[in-house]
TrEMBL record:
Source species: Triparma laevis f. longispina
GO cellular component assignments: membrane
Major location (coarse): membrane
Location in the cell: Membrane
Keyword terms: Membrane, Transmembrane, Transmembrane helix
Entry annotated with the keyword Transmembrane helix: yes
Protein name: Uncharacterized protein
PANTHER family linked: P3 PROTEIN-RELATED, SODIUM-BILE ACID COTRANSPORTER
Transmembrane regions: 22-45, 51-73, 80-99, 119-137, 149-172, 178-197
Length: 270
């Protein structure tokens, strides 16, 4: 999160004011479609309360920085992706605890205040620190930004790997429903994120961007927040999600890029 903050400035958030409609649409998909899809998926695959809570946390988390890379691969709008990621990450400080509290009420008790504190510590505080670095130490921030994405990948791999290792018994007994529920969640997110903008007349580039931002969550954040609640097993869906959404997003991006190449070849032939 500090690394993300180092790439942001106050001017970036002014961009939201210039594109309020499309950014609002994308963030709306993020915090409406995905939480409801997570609840639906947990019901379909009959997840126990702890795993259901973990899946709902995944659905209520903001977009992750990996979405920006997949957006680049997909020939979509990277600036719009960054705007949506930034906006959803800030809003997550309030919306993630609130939505998780509402949607998981029937399955398990969630300490909303504790989740709000954890989200603020993990999201808001580090991003502000990173933005301060970017403001007052721009050269240092620019150099660090070359390495922070790779470092983030390593850290997420270690976090998710440790969760899988420490919860191996849960995965052995409930692994298939968890994996299927996560695949269903992200597949539905990518699909709704693409076809809803299409219904409202947005262009192809915007549809791809919203699709990626909707379908790809900050799974590492979901893992950390689940751990802060102290509910055994709740971290597992987030750990599985980190792999699943990256695979689906990369595959989708590759397909879109391949399709653009084919269309370009046809235009050249004509």
């Amino acid at each position: 999160m500090i690394g993300m903050g180092m790439t942001l400035s106050a001017e970036d958030f002014l961009g939201i004011m210039r594109k309020p409609k499309v950014v609002g649409f994308g963030v709306g998909c993020q915090f409406i479609c995905m939480p409801l899809a997570a609840l639906l998926s947990s019901k379909i695959f009959k997840l126990p309360p702890a795993l259901s809570l973990g899946l709902i946390l995944v659905g209520t988390c903001p977009g992750g920085t990996a979405s920006n890379l997949v957006t680049l691969i997909s020939n979509a709008s990277v600036p719009l992706s960054v705007l949506m990621t930034s906006c959803s990450t800030i809003l997550a400080t309030i919306l993630t605890p609130l939505l998780t509290k509402i949607l998981s009420r029937s399955s398990i008790t969630v300490n909303g205040i504790q989740l709000f504190k954890s989200t603020s510590q993990v999201v808001l505080a580090p991003i502000l620190i990173g933005m301060i670095f970017n403001k007052w130490l721009p050269t240092f921030s620019e150099k660090c930004s070359k390495y922070t994405p790779f470092l983030s990948v390593i850290l997420v791999s270690l976090i998710c790997g440790s969760v899988v290792a420490s919860n191996s018994l849960i995965l052995l007994t409930s692994g298939l429903p968890v994996i299927l529920s996560v695949i269903f969640l992200h597949s539905l997110g990518f699909s709704l994120g693409y076809y809803l903008p299409k219904k409202y007349g947005y262009d192809e580039v915007t549809r791809r961007t919203v699709s990626i931002e909707t379908g790809m969550q900050n799974s590492a954040l979901a893992v950390v927040l689940a751990g802060s609640l102290g509910v055994e097993g709740a971290m597992v869906p987030g750990a599985v999600s980190a792999t699943v959404h990256s695979c689906i997003g990369s595959a989708l991006g590759g397909i879109w890029r391949w399709r653009d190449g084919r269309e370009g070849e046809k235009e050249n032939e004509e």
